[in-house]
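Quick one: co-fold with zinc ion.
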Amino acid sequence: MNPVIHGGVGWLVAQPLERRRDRALVTQAAVAPDVDGVGLRVSEDPYLAWHHRLAHGALWAVATAVVVGVASRSPKAALAGLVAFHIHVVMDLVGSGPGWPNLCWYPWADTEWRPSWQWNLVS
Ligand SMILES: [Zn+2]
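Sure, here it is.
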């Protein structure tokens, strides 16, 4: 799914937060998982091998929430960042095309989440 859409949804998740800086951090947390798509700059092979694996898992989710929490000094912002991160993963599960899994427990497990209800229409 498109990072711009993820950012927009993260921005919506962040709206209850009072400080602009916290809203910006949560918006960035919503896009953060797609850092593992940077391989596309090199070629399609590393992109297909690592996207939805490296930064779409539980370790990256926790790291993202910690970064948001430390940067904002707000547990509410950290929680909103964690929510935004997980909405990103769910959106990818639904809208990245059939057969493209997410590895939600990476690096602790290589279990591929490939629900049968993925949209046939990619993004
Ligand atoms: Zn993604």
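If it helps, The chain has a mean pLDDT of 91.
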